Structure formats: structure tokens, C-alpha cells
Amino acid sequence: MSTAALRQALESRAGTAALERLYGGGDGVLARQRARYAALMDRFDSCYPRAAAPRFFSTPGRTEIGGNHTDHNHGQVLAAAIDLDVIAAAAPTNDGRIVIESEGYPRQEVRLEDLAARPSERSTAAAITRGVAARMRALGHAAGGFSACVTSDVLKGSGLSSSASYEVLVATILNHLYNGGGISGQEIALIGQFAENEYFGKPSGLMDQTTCALGGFITIDFRDPLRPEVRGVRSAFSSSGYSTVVVDTGGSHADLTDEYAAVKAEMKEVARLLGGSVLRDTTRERVVAEAPRLRAELGDRALLRAFHFFDDNRRVQEQVRALEAGSFGRFLELVRESGRSSWMLLQNCYPAGSPREQGVPLALALSETLLEGDGAWRVHGGGFAGTILAFVPQARVAAYLQGMRAVFGAGSCHALSIRGAGAVMLDV
After folding, report:
1. For residue range 281-329, what is the model confidence (pLDDT) as tens digits?
2. 179 in the same domain as 259
3. CATH number of residue 177's parent domain
4. Among 32, 191, 322, 345, which is disulfide-ready with 331 (CB 3.0 to 4.6 Å)?
5. What pTM does this model have?
6. Segment 112-153, tens digit of pLDDT
7. Same domain for 91 and 156
8. Structural domain of 272
């Protein structure tokens, strides 16, 4: 298909249906997305004038609803894909190179004859691309060259998993261009996690990649992280009378790798002293019984973080039951409990070394004040900076947005919708 024909396809019935599956209906929504994809096509033509016509790819961001920092210790989570996504126009090449022009970032080029991890690339997009290609080949899948242009409306550093959505995007491009789309979503997620852990250098769990790859409103049990149990959650969420809002407090996750690593490491140290490798191997009761010894060896924060793990792991199951039973009031109560636990026990609402910068706690306190106890609010994602998630009564949305924007800026609040589709190649 030529690029001209591809542009026409975006306006066709099939193109409209493909966009509606990802972004919902409404002329304003579809017009904006068509313009977005057309602009991406223009960039592709400008960057690669002799390339074959590209295909379109989309990977959603995700929102974490329950189970804050539980996945890396083999716990349970409740999460959902959202309607903000990273998209690409990509075409295969035969020159043994992956070349990506990503809006707002330096051009990257990865040569496929050398896929060893490079320390100089850590914390860069090129490290993720190289790590994804390396893992694909190590697992026996094909990984060939391609040229791509990428743009994203998944807010960077917001806790909406911009890095995971990018990892899954690269793996999805390779899956469809060279593997016939035959690699499962769960394996795509594992490939992305490998790239982030081993090449990018961030010790993430698997929740983000799994949600981005599979889509929908899901609960995941990571008892066996190589084969996590994933199932959809049946809920009349859209008719609850509440809107889902993410508030960006202006902080960035860019320099917080050590903070994230400490959460995971301290939880695992508690487990190790109790004869396990992760907290899922032991119980809250054993931690309480051994508290004097654990405290002496690890300090108080490790114990508090362990208590959070067990409590939030239990809450995920209760949240799923509440949603599926239509008990939305109970669900909101559990969200608030989770938020308090993250703030008081997990202690991931601001970096320990930056007491003057507490955007997340400030947003939580303002949410409680503005909503007067009606709704729910909690830290969102990895924490320490970035965003909070709020469930806001629809009658209070305007006042809530006005109050939060007055403090955090005009572009700080974003209403989200749940996206049913995960990572896809668009059928236009």
C-alpha cells in the first residue's frame, strides 16, 4: 500500500473502525487521531523518503489501580490500559539496522550484528531497542531491521508507563514485521521487562508491560512471574458516576532509579531473612513475629514496606470482588486505604533526600480537601514524584480540575478512559 493509499485508508470505514476500537467514537476524537496519524506519516515520508509504505502500530499506557509495588515480589495487581498511547509508523528494511526517529528525542540507530548491552547506553531509548531485539533473538524469534517514526501522548515521568509502552511497541513492531504476529502478549511483556531490567537498568516488575501488551481492565497474579495469571475484570465501571483523573504534580521519574530499586531490595531482604526469595514466600504473621530481629538487621523502613506488600496484596482481591459485585463505594474505600498505605508504610510519595519537593503528598492532601471525602485518591505508579490517581464524582469534576490546576498548572490534569485493546498493528 502506498503512503497516499494509507492516508485514504485512515478515512475509510475500516480505518474508522480501527481508530474507534482504540480511542472510542465521536467526531472530535476521531478527527484528532486521524490528524495525529497523518502527521506521523508526513514525518515518516520526510525522514525516510525511499522507504516502503509503513504500517501503523499503537501501544497504550496503563493506569495502576491496586497493588502498589507488589508485582516485583510476586504479588497481585489491578490495572487497566488507557486511551493515551505511543504510536509508530514503521517499515521493514534489509540493511541490518533499526532506525527510530522519536519525537522529542535524539535519532537512534541500532545495528543488529551487535546486540550486547552497552553500559554507555543505560537509561536511553537505544538501550531498550537493543535489549528488545537481543531478547527476541535469544528466545528464537526473528528480529530484523526497520525504520520508524514514533510519537507519544503517554506523559513521560507520569506513572502511566511511558517506558513500558515504548518497550512493548518495539517488540510489537518486530512481532508483526518479522514473526507474523505470532508472539503472545505475555511473552511480549517479558521481552520488554528484560530490556528494561538488563539493558536500560531499571529494576521494574512486570505489571506495566503486561497491561500495555494485553490491554483492558485486568488483574494479574505474579506468583509465577514467568507465567503470570491474567484475567479480565467484569465491572460496570463506566456507569459508576465517577471520572478517572490523573494529576501530574510536575515531578519527574528520571533520577529515581535508586529509590525504586530500594523498595524492591528491602522487601526481598525481609523475605531472605525469613527463608524466602520474595515476600510472596512468607506471611505478614511471620514478619510480625520476627520483627525484633528483622528490625535490628534491616531497619524500620524495610518492615513497614513488607507490611504494605501484604496489605495491598490482600486489597487487590477485595477490590476485584467489590468491582464485580457492583460495590463501588467499597472499591473507593479500598483505593483510599491503598493510598494511605503507600504514603505511610511504603513511603514512595517523595524522595527521602528531597523534603522540600513533595508534590505527590500535596496533591493527595488537596484531593481530600477538594473532594471532602467523596471519591478516592492515591499515589500513581512507582511514586516518589509524578502523578496521583483520583476517582472524582462527576458533579465535582469541574471544581476539582480548577482547584488542582491552580496549584499544579493548566496542563496538569488528564481525564482517562479505559482501553480494551493492548498493543496492536492497526488494520487499516
Report:
1. 999 999 999 999 999 999 999 999 999 999 999 999 999 999 999 999 9
2. no
3. 3.30.230.10
4. 322
5. 0.82
6. 999 999 999 998 999 999 999 999 999 999 999 999 999 998
7. yes
8. 237-415
